[in-house]
Design brief:
Blueprint: H1 8-13, E1 14-16, E2 22-25, H2 38-43, E3 47-49, H3 52-55, H4 58-61
Antiparallel strand pairs: 1-2, 2-3
């Protein structure tokens, strides 16, 4: 049986923790930041853990991660 391919877009955007949770960068942080409050921008720094509903798809996209 041939190897499964990893989705290139997923491997650039997501990582798995040791416990199996999925880490992603915060959304809505790419442009138009002058419209947002400073506290909102501070809260969008760094990464976040995806909810279980969205994380269920990741093993299909990244079978060997």
């Amino acid at each position: 049986m041939p190897k499964m391919k990893t989705k290139s877009s997923a491997k650039k955007r997501f990582k798995f923790t040791a416990s199996g949770k999925v880490i992603a960068t915060q959304a809505n942080k790419q442009h138009n930041m002058r419209k947002r409050s400073k506290s909102q921008l501070r809260n969008q720094r760094g990464t976040t853990i995806l909810p279980k509903m969205e994380a269920r798809r990741m093993p299909q996209y990244m079978p060997y991660a």
